[in-house]
Amino acid sequence: MSEEKEAFRLRERLALPPGYEEAIASSSRSDISDNDDEPNENQRLLFSSDSHNNSTRNGGDDDDDDDNNNGNINVGSGSGSGSGSGSGSGGSANPPQAATSGSRSNNATRPDGYRAPTVRSVRSSFDSNSSFLPSSSSSDSGEDGDGRRRSTESLRRILEVMDIEEPEYDGRSSRIRERISKPFSILGGAISSFGSRVGSRFGWFTSRIPSMPRLPNFLRFPADEDGIINLQRFIGVIIVVIIVREFFPIHQWRECTDEQWVQVYAIFATDVFTMRMNQGHQYDPDSVKRYLIDNVDPENIKHMLKYLSSFDHLAGTEGDYQMAQYVAGKFKETGMRDVRTEEYEVYLNYPNKDGKGRRIAIVDPPELRWTATLEEQHFDTSKHPGKITPAFHGYSKSGNVTGHLVYANYGSKQDFEYLKSKKVQLKGSIVLVRYFGTESDAAIKVKMAEDAGAAGCIIYSDPKENGMVKGKVWPEGRWAPDDFVQRASVGLTRYQPGDPLSPGVASDFKNKRIKKEDAVMSKIPSLPLAWRDAQKLIGALKGHGSKVNDDWKGGIPDVEWWTGDKNSPKVNLMNLQVEHDKQKIWNILATIEGFEQPRKAIIIGSKRDSWAYGATSMTGTAIMLEMMRVFGQMYDIGWRPARTIHFASWDGSQYGLVGSTEWVEQYANELRMDGVVYINVGTAVTGTQFKARGSPALQLALNTALGWFMDPSTNSTMLESRGERTLAGPAINTDSLAFTNFAGMAAIDIGFEAEDGDQAIPLHSAYDSYEWMTKFGDPKWEFVPLLAQVWGVLTIVMSDNLVIPLNYADYAVSLNRHLDDLKRWVDEKREKRRRHGHEDATIDWKPMKDTIRKLREDSLHFNDFISQLENTLLQLDGTEPAAMTVERLEHNNKVAMFETHMLDMSAVPGRPWFKNTIFAPQVRSELDHLWFPAIVDAVEADDWEKARFQLERLRQIIDNASNWIKR
After folding, report:
1. N or C: which end of the chain has fewer CB within 10 A?
2. Do residues 726 and 28 make contact, with C-beta atoms less than 8 angstroms apart?
3. Where exactly are the transmembrane stretches of this chain (predicted)?
């Protein structure tokens, strides 16, 4: 085999699929300023989906059906015996298509020229089991290229140097070398009896990275994992004893010099030993991904989703506990170890039994008296046993208030400023606002009303956003009917997520709770409302206050739109609820332990609770369960990730990301030290456009995963369909929040959404059902299984690469771009100040720009190690020396802890829970396009001295993080 082919094979293990390297290198090296120097060729970041030595599966009987039906993990030709569609021979195959209902292939009508998706394999035509051959050319030192000779000569040179430096030991070195070779030759012959489990070229102590077998239907060394590890430990002890005994008799240990101990160390620090001992079979990385892709069963996901969305399961309720038991049972069925339920006691509120104690009514004048229905009336309950939880707001304040009605559009800061400019009295009012719009967070709508002096707040769903104005409504269409009620939480997660009574610490028996009156919670009552009922309220405002502009008008028919005033009809808002300070919730977790860096954590999660049936959010749970089933099969066959994978089903997410936040608070120290990435799928599929939000450092890993798949609606890969879009920062309203902002971990959310902000999904209502999901959410059932495949491949990329694929050169480029966005926003604020006659406020941006430029340069230099690793493996016939392994693991440690170094433990001023001053959410969602919340908060408060202080503090944090990875 030619040297070029060998080099190509090795680059596959350390690089992206074909064609990506240039694009990624261009992205990583894109200019931060016009003055930046172009980095050299060696500064390209090359990550691989590399494979590792793996432990064998546990003992016991094998499931023959799984072995026969699910096929092999393959290499080379790319053919598999599994039921999946991806097959091919020779050159690169096409990416795999998402399996569809009832079949692994999709025969639905496609655009002209559509190529049936299959697995993309960059390994292609090379024989999977052939090992790397030594280079035919001589090395710089004149060696003949043979790996054993290089290793021996390397050791000899070290020992000879020691002889020169210490001439009085002349003659002893040769005896030491003789003693080294003798036990190795004896032990090597004994170990060779283990046959194929040892390296073929350097004897038993080799780690053969390039030679990857197929995932077998049988195991040639049928012992359990602990048995393998114990055997290795036993052999290792024997080796050490023999070496030490041959070096020095026990009675001479105290007489040993430093030089002699250095000689012992030299044996372990050179190529004689490699760190990556066989712990099972090594598998071709593309083959592992193909196995997962081919074995995802779309019908299994659909079957589980039907049950998961068949009954109401609000957090902490009987339905939730039943769901937790079901998920825990499914976790155990996968065969994963350490399946556990972690329980927390948190504050939760609920409506009174049968919905009593809730009321929205016009009480004055008498001729307009009217009472709202509050619940969905047209939903078919025959398919769903049990009662649905009455419509309410999680974490709303309990109360009974009456006041004049005022309409405040979307409830944004600008909307309330407009009402004040119109002299509309807000104090003591009942404010009516609509969902979505410029202020998308329901909690901030209520907070803005509270700050304006309102006594209560009503939030309704307008048909302009997701009702009949958009198209046909349920059941004829995907849009919400007139009685659609969108439940929501009004918990202030932008100030503090999790249990409001235990900020910053886990809600367990050891930690004290604060009083409710001291908690960060809404101070006025609120309720959700259908537009069917809101129509009455809007109509009652006619003639009160001022007529509104067109952008304030919703889609409710047959009404005039007025703001209201102090003489508006009086409305009673009653929300008398049940409150539990210590309500139990249940997180379910399972683990696949990594074999190389088991402390390093890849965490996979999805929310489990819902306001009603929650089919769209439970799709994430169903996908995760199916993905875990396939991971369990790979575990049984013998595959192990390099780093540990934790699977988590979070409870209490709908209230305020409670379950995930409490878990992160409990394990914050461990996560800050060893957490690598959190990958979340929440509301999984509501459309056809792939969306992702996350740390910019994950862009490369995401691109690697997307390059495997075809977009079902186009004739291109998902990566090509995504185009030039980059990760715009972590999500702020998902379970990723605590991992990013409290633990200091990279995090990403993935899913399929409707284009252009389409809000067709009947979110958090009785209509969010299995029937809607299968009829309109994903009618061909192709995006749901596709997301399972993408999620699984991304998990493998993050857990099993030789080098953790986090690229902080991309991170620096995004920092610079968002700093420019912040500067433009600040300049607008400065101009507004000048127009109002205030003195100009200046900020010097240059030090921050210079620091970000330094971070980029340090990141690129830091990434040079990957090229060095590639070159070393080429030179040493694919064997990773012990010293290089140590350096690689240290590289991974630095990569994993980089975002921990970006935390500011003094927190965002005014919001002490948030430790990330780059990605913490803004106080108002209309500013979510901006990063750097501490600076934004200061500018919003017109405190320019504080803004300059926060900018300099952040600059120092970035500089320290840059120094952390500086080589």
Report:
1. C
2. no
3. none
Fold for the domain defined by 353-575: Glucose Oxidase; domain 1 (3.50.30)
Could you tell me how far CA 236 lies from the centroid of its own chain?
38
Phi, psi of 591 (to 5 degrees): -140, 140
* The token pair that represents 114 in the structure block: 């559509």
Q: Where in the chain is the domain with CATH 3.40.630.10?
A: 300-348+582-800
DSSP classification of residue 256: -
Element (H, E) at 589: strand 577-592
| Sign (positive or negative) of CA dihedral 402, 405, 408, 410 | positive
C-alpha span between 490 and 487 (Å, rounded): 10
Q: What are the two backbone dihedrals, phi and then psi, of residue 764, each rounded to the nearest 5 degrees?
A: 60, 35
Query: 308 with 323: CB under 8 angstroms?
Result: yes
Residue 943 has pLDDT above 60, yes or no: yes
Q: How far apart are CA 228 and CA 240, in angstroms?
A: 18
Q: What is the pLDDT of residue 236?
A: 57
d(CA 646, CA 680): 12
Q: What CATH class does 300-348+582-800 carry?
A: alpha beta
- Asked whether the whole model's pTM tops 0.85, one would answer no
> Which residues on adjacent β-strands are paired with residue 350?
578
Question: To the nearest 10°, the Cα dihedral for 27, 741, 594, 586?
Answer: -140
- Rounded CA separation 525/458 (Å): 9
Whether omega for the bond prior to residue 475 falls within 30 degrees of 0, making it cis, is: yes
Secondary-structure breakdown of the chain: helix, strand, coil percentages, each rounded to the nearest 5: 45, 15, 45
pLDDT digits (tens, 9 = 90+) for 518-545: 999 999 999 999 999 999 999 999 999 9
Query: Where are the domain boundaries for CATH 1.20.930.40 in the chain?
Result: 808-964
Which amino acid type is present at position 693?
Answer: R
Q: Any idea which residue has 């690169």 for tokens?
A: 92
Give the relative orientation of helices 298-308 and 615-637 as an angle to the nearest 10 degrees.
130
Is the pLDDT at 964 greater than 90? The verdict is yes
CATH top class, domain 808-964? mainly alpha
